[in-house]
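Good morning C.,

I know you're traveling, so I'll keep this short. The sequence:
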Amino acid sequence: MQITRPKEFSVTTVILLVLLGISAWVAIMIFQALSETAIFESLAFANPAVKHLVGKVDIASWKRYANKTAGFALRYPNDWYVENVAVDQDAGGDVMVGGKRSALFEIAISPPSGFGISVQHVFPAYDNQPPELQKENTINLSRPLAGAYYELKSVSGAPYLRSYTQAPNEEDKLVAWIPTGKYILAVQAMNLSKGRDIEIFDAILKTVELK
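The tokens, ready to paste straight into the viewer:
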């Protein structure tokens, strides 16, 4: 009786299968990234004739916060309040330490309780660089701190990087980095608990202007 042995895969065949699998995975990741980026980019004014609608969020009654020292402005819900966590009250900008500007610029914008945002001056070694160079440095520095990020723009054209990460037994992290040309600002979600919070966060970022 002749025994038929199963055909053995050659090393070349195995390598080809592995490469095909990797290529398919990369293609899926790129497709997902492009799809999600398109979704976030669509959060501009839904109708040019309705200037108070950003995505699904009505910003008609929102207040405006502007800080020339830090080089940015944004809008936020009418029932939220600005707290100067580390901002010079007189100059309306940087905290002054020993007669010099400190890297401690930070504000919190939130309602009396619940979801809000913080805006902080980060990566001070890269202050006063062109925004494009700040963006590159932010990508390199923030990659270990976050998962996938998306390069987006506000309605006025201000660039920013957005990242949303979820991990078991950890609080969801939603953050954006804005290179202003003076500072790199980190906008962090606080007390994130529901999908509506994400919509508000994205709407706030879409109102950012650079000064």
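Safe travels,
E.
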